[in-house]
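Quick start: load a record and inspect it. Here is Antitoxin FitA-like ribbon-helix-helix domain-containing protein:
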Amino acid sequence: MARLSIRDFPDDLHQQLVRAANKHERSLEGETRYALARYIESLHQPQPEPAPRRETWQRQTGKRLEQLFDRLREDDVFAWGERHDVPHLAQALGEVSPAPLMDIIDGRLALSFEMAEKLAKRFSCSTSWLLNGAGSMFPYPEIGGSYTEFIEPAKGVLPITIKLVRICQEKAADGSSGRHDGTLLIFRIKDGDAHIEAGYSSTRFYLGDGMGAGGQGNLKDFVGYLNKNEDVNFKAYNFFKPLEREEAWGHHPQYFLKGAEPAGWLEPLLRGVSPGNIKWVTDSV
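Running the structure step on this input writes:
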């Protein structure tokens, strides 16, 4: 029979063969022959075909749905005593059985457009993110230039509240503000409706000092709009929890609303006090 001699054989591989030989009660030569035979056999095994696109998509949407439910729990979205296991979540969605939801999570059933819309309506998540992973888990469009359209449904409607939440972040060691400091989150909330509409402004204007003339003008227009709509129920808050650079829009609106504290900056802002003279994190000017 043929003989095989190998020079410069790696020490770590040699030790692995020794351990395997001891485990299988073979000689080192026998273990080496066995390992080589198994490797040669594997080269002739048919390679698995790539999963069809539908299967891949179903698995990905199932993982995203599971991520959504995990995030809802982490963000403390559910009311005290409210069950949030999959059967109860299915019941909250109006399903007759939890089985379809479980199958979607496991990647065995396709997430339908109808179910995606149900999830978005009930949990304020993004259908685009659910269906194809585009954007963020929860939609926070920049509405600094379209706040009138966002607030319009609340005009003269008492059960609807507009909550204005200012993100407050500590300054860095070099004196610079946090990336989201001064960002204004705007939430439109209707009593009795679990769905919360959300948006933000930080590019056209923000709540703080240091904006250029354009930003100051945009903020002035925003304040003027608020003053003209006294029939809208506006409430102001500050949010102090630290936020990582890219994680802000990965949280449910309730994460910000439950963590927000009532603030006193809205009244001086409406009176025309300059942003540089407002103490944003206190109740006084």
